[in-house]
Amino acid sequence: MNAIEARNLTKNYQVYLRPFDRLKEAVLRRPCHDLVEALTDVSFEVPEGGTLGIIGENGAGKSTLLKILAGTARQTFGQMVKRGRMAALLELGSGFHPEFSGRQNIYLNAALLGLKEKEIREREEAIIAFSELEQAIDRPVKTYSSGMYVRLAFSIATSVDPEILIIDEALSVGDQRFQQKCVDRMMNFRKANKTLIICTHSMYMINELCSHAIWLKNGHMCRYGKTSSVVSAYLAYLEADPETLSPAPAAPAQLQMPDVLIEEVRLLDEEKKSVISIRQFETVVVQVKTRRIGPPIKGHLAIGFGFADGTQVFETTTKISGLNPILFSGRQRMELVIPSIPILGGNYRVRVRVGDEYALRAIHQMSHGPIEIESEHPEIGMVWMPHSWNIPDGEGSFS
């Protein structure tokens, strides 16, 4: 059984250059508008308990598709079938009445999601407790910060016990601790065999959370299928035409100590001596020192090599390697050993990141470098591979 079935979804918007053109069109009975196709012929299925990621550049049609799925917009053409209660966390503040208090908006939003008043009363205190807005719940939401908006919206959307949950970049707002609470709740949704639809610019999150993905471009579906295949095709497209890559938003200033602090990153040779240059095919050890203040917490470690412009050459994580989450406690030292580094000569940076126990939320990161890799091979590219040539002789056959 599929939770969602979409067939040839198309959404057109009528754009009027002047307000007067609407009246002119009504009187003259002829079009006085431009037709903009925001979404064209999009078809897919999401099975019950499945996870779907939606990726693409800004303006690709992602938000339009999510609005159609959530029911806040209606497709111009096509058919869509949804089975089960749906909750959506879309753009900031959507569905909130700014003059109402947080408590009143709980009743308004939950009612729109299909809950009866008795059900809302039963869940009201749990919603407020999860949002951690006890002190502000009776204030008008127009006085809330963006983080407070998201806290309340996420708490409502996930507390109504939906069978289908849609999330659109909402977890980029809020402090570390609340982001982790949101990740924990999303993982519980997956374990409970709920259906998740996630739209984000984080390819790492899409890879980790979603079994299938859709890549949208200019309103059209470029690729749909297994997440690894879709993400690889999308990243290859961005690398081939870097001007299409939207600039990433500036990271917010770190106003609090991260849950786990990366204190030092060192590059060592086989004899555990610190180095700033490496010879290709030699053993390399990346040593990371971390510090945790407070009770132990679980997390994963990611280490990668890349260029100064952010292009990634290689990255691995303890989760990808099949290791259990690390128990971060006090000061610790961890190492990644690469017996023979195959990267061609050049200057690189080592990037280290600590993530949560699901490897979804970045806790702290640090770059180390530049590091020079010395190579005797003149080949072009990023890595050297063993190779040989078969050249035809003068008679056209291989010698």
Structural class: alpha/beta
Distance between the termini: 59 Å
Reading the helices and strands in chain order gives EHEEHEEHHHEHEHEEHEEEEEEE
Tally of individual domains = 2
pLDDT < 50 stretches: 244-255
Q: What is the annotated CATH architecture of the largest domain?
A: 3-Layer(aba) Sandwich
The percent of residues in helical segments reads: 10-25%
Output the keywords.
alpha/beta; Rossmann fold; seven-stranded mixed beta sheet; six-stranded mixed beta sheet; 16 strands; 24% helix
What can you see in these coordinates?
This protein has 399 residues and is of the alpha/beta class. It is 24% helix and 36% strand. The chain contains eight helices and 16 strands. It has helices spanning 20-28, 62-70, 102-112, 117-131, 146-159, 176-191, 203-209, 227-240; strands at 2-15, 34-47, 51-55, 77-82, 86-89, 164-168, 195-199, 212-217, 220-226, 261-268, 277-279, 284-306, 312-317, 326-338, 346-356, 362-374. α4 crosses α5 (146-159). The longest helix is centred in the middle third of the chain and has 16 residues, at 176-191. It is globular. Residues 244-255 have low confidence and may be disordered.
Task: Compose a concise summary of this entry.
This protein is of the alpha/beta class and 399 residues long.
